[in-house]
Structure formats: structure tokens, C-alpha cells
Amino acid sequence: MFKAKKINELKSVVNIPEEALAFLKEATKDTPNGKYYFGETCYVNVMDCTTKSVKFDENGNAIMEAHDKYIDAQFIIDGEEKILFGSRENMPVYKEYNPEKDVLFYSVTPYDEVTYKTGETIVLPPEDAHQPGCCVAEPKTIKKAVVKIKA
Question: Disulfide-capable partner of 17 in 4, 36, 38, 98 (CB 3.0 to 4.6 Å)?
Fold first, then answer.
């Protein structure tokens, strides 16, 4: 996991197309929700969402997602959220891999967490599992962009 306080720092961590970087720099809370494609290796999913409490399984372990084909760069356009994360190595699988959605789920304790806010980005490579969208204190509506870059 890499936390960037400024959007320009993304270029030093992932191979993000210049057009996608420019799009993120111009994004505001009024940017329409939806998927924006930048070549064959990158797309940005802009969304309004409400942060939520951490999701746990029946044994009290956090449920985290991971991706094999894409690097996630989660960018907060407006608001703040907490994200849980950890290395996938030795994590027990909670739900098997879905190749069409490029997602599988793990059930894990312990984990790390970080809070990020407007203008900041969290980069999660395929080796990291994560649970985004967690509330910092109480649920709030935020605007974010999830950048998907082919690994």
C-alpha cells in the first residue's frame, strides 16, 4: 500500500496514463459518476458512496477484497474514508476468485488501516487485500474515483 498526499505522486508509483492523471486533477464533486476509459490499460470509476462500518465475517475477521489483474488507486475527490489493508500472503480465502469481476475475498485479522481525505490517493497492488469505504467516525457520503490500472 502506498499513500499519496498529492495526485502527481501517482506517476512515481504506477504507470498511469497522462490523460487519466489529468482527469483526476480536474475531478470535482460535480464530476458525473461512471466509468471513464483511458486506453486499454486503465479506467476510472467515479462514484458517490456512503462510508460504512467495517465488514466482519461470522468469526470477527475483516472481509477484504483483492484483485489479480489490476492495481487499485483509490482517490478521494471529496470527503474522507478509512481503508483496511494487508498482504494477501497466508490470508485465508473467504470467497473464491471471480475472474469476470477480478475479485476474491479474504477473511483476516490482524490488519492495518489508514485514513485518507480529499485529494489523497491510496495505491493497492495485487499483493494487497483491502476493504475500502469504511467510515472514519460515522457514515458520510463521499465522492471518490477508483483507478484501475492493468498490473
Answer: 38
The strand pairing partners of 116, in sequence order, are: 81
Provide the residue range defining the domain that includes 127. 2-150
**What CA–CA distances, in Å, run from 36 to 11, 42, 45, 97, 146?**
18, 9, 6, 25, 10
101: left (phi over 0), alpha (psi -120 to 50) or beta: alpha
Residue 101: give its domain's CATH number. Answer: 2.60.120.370
Domain count, the chain: 1
pLDDT in tens, the chain (151 residues): 898 888 888 888 999 999 999 999 999 999 999 999 999 999 999 999 999 999 999 999 999 999 999 999 999 999 999 999 999 988 999 999 999 999 999 998 889 999 999 999 999 999 999 999 999 999 999 999 999 999 9
Contacts of 100 (CB under 8 A, 6+ apart): none
